[in-house]
Amino acid sequence: MIDEFLNKIKLERVHELDYEILKRYGVQKGNQLIFEMEKLFSLSEQRVKQRRDIDPYVLRQPEMVNFCNQNPEFSLLISSYYDYHTFRVFMKKLSVYHQYFGEKILDVGCGNGILTCFLSLLMPDSHIVGTDISEKALGSAVFIRDKLNLKNVEFIPHQKISKSKFNTVISIRCMHENTGAIQETASKRQANIYEQAVEKYLKSIAAYLESEGIFFSIERDAGKISEMYLEKTAKNYYHVIHKEKMLCIEGKEKAEFQLRLSKKSCII
Ligand SMILES: C[S@@+](CC[C@H](N)C(=O)[O-])C[C@H]1O[C@@H](n2cnc3c(N)ncnc32)[C@H](O)[C@@H]1O
Predict the structure, then answer these.
(1) Spatial distance between the Cα atoms of 87 and 119, rounded to a whole number of angstroms
(2) From CA 198, how far away is CA 202, in angstroms rounded?
(3) Span 133-158, mean pLDDT?
(4) What integer pLDDT is reported at residue 157 of this predicted model?
C-alpha cells in the first residue's frame, strides 16, 4: 500500500537535490531556486546561532516552509529528497497504530499533507482534517488530495479550525517548531521558557481532544533534558499508552524521533 501510494503521488527517492532541480527547471530558473534555498538555510543557521539562548521559537522556519511549498510539484520534489525514507517509516507506523484512532481526526502541522492523505486512505470511514499555519503548504496538500480524489479529508488554515473536538489529534514533526529544544547547559530562565512553550503546545492539543481522546505524536528526539520536561508536563494532560524511538534518514542526515501514543486524561 505504501509503495502504491508513493507511486501515485510521484514521490520517489532523489539523491542529489541540486542536480534534480537543475534537471527539472533548467539552468537559469534552477540556479535561482538553489540560490534562494541557500539563502534561507543560512538565515536559519544565523537565527539558531544568534538567538538560540533567548528564543525558543527559533526553530520555526516559516519562510522555508513557504518556499518549499511554493507549488505542489516543488513541494513533492523537496519531500522526495528530504522525506522519502522518513515518510516510509512514518507510514509504516501509521499503518500499525491507526487502529487506535477515531472517526474524527485532526492532523496539526500537516505540511504538504502527504501523511494526512495516506491516513485518509488507511481510514476511509473517518473524517480527517489537516491544518497548518502555512497556506502555501495547505495549497500543496489540497493538490495532493485532489490528485488522489480523496473525499474524507479536508485542509483548513490553522486560524479557521473551529472549537469542535476530535477523537484523535496527530502531531508529526510539529512540536519542535513550537517549543524549540533545550540543552543540558541551559540556564534556569531558558528552562522556564522551554517548559512554558511545551505546556502551551500540549495544552492546545488537549483542547482539541474529546475526553479520553487519543494523541498520537512523532516528534524529533530533542535530547534528555527536553525529554524530561516533556514527560513532566505531559503528565498533566495525557496518559502515555506506548512510546518508542525511531531512526530515520533525512536527506543525508540521520534523525531520531520519539513516537508516543497517549490518551487525554484531563478536562479542558
Ligand atoms: C516539519 S513540518 C512537518 C509537516 C508534516 N507533519 C510532516 O511530517 O510531513 C512542520 C509543519 O508544522 C507547521 N506548524 C508549526 N507550528 C504549527 C502550529 N502551531 N499549528 C499549525 N501548524 C504548525 C509548519 O508550518 C510546517 O508546515
Answers:
(1) 12
(2) 6
(3) 96
(4) 95
217 pocket-lining for ligand 1 (C-beta < 6 Å): no
Ligand 1 centre to CA of 173 (Å) is: 7
Q: Which domains does the chain have, with CATH numbers?
A: 1-268 (3.40.50.150)
- The whole-number pLDDT of residue 226 equals 86
Q: Is the pLDDT of residue 8 over 80?
A: yes
11 Cβ inside 6 Å of ligand 1: no
Q: Residue for cell digits 530562565?
A: 189
Our answer on whether the CB atom of 108 is closer than 6 Å to any ligand 1 atom is yes
**Ligand 1 site, residue 198, Cβ cutoff 6 A:** no
**Alpha carbon distance 76, 12 (integer Å):** 9
- pLDDT at position 46 is 79
Give the span between the Cα atoms of 103 and 168, in whole angstroms: 8
Q: How many CA atoms lie within 13 A of 87 on its CB side?
A: 27
Residue nearest ligand 1's atom 1 by CA:
173
Q: Residue 66 and residue 61: Cα distance in Å, rounded?
A: 9
Decide if pLDDT at 55 tops 70. no
**pTM given for the model:** 0.94
pLDDT interval class at 53 (50, 70, 90)? low
Using the mean position of ligand 1's atoms as its centre, give its distance from the Cα of residue 3 in Å: 24
Which of 86, 174, 176, 203 should be mutated for ligand 1, with most atoms under 8 A from CB?
174
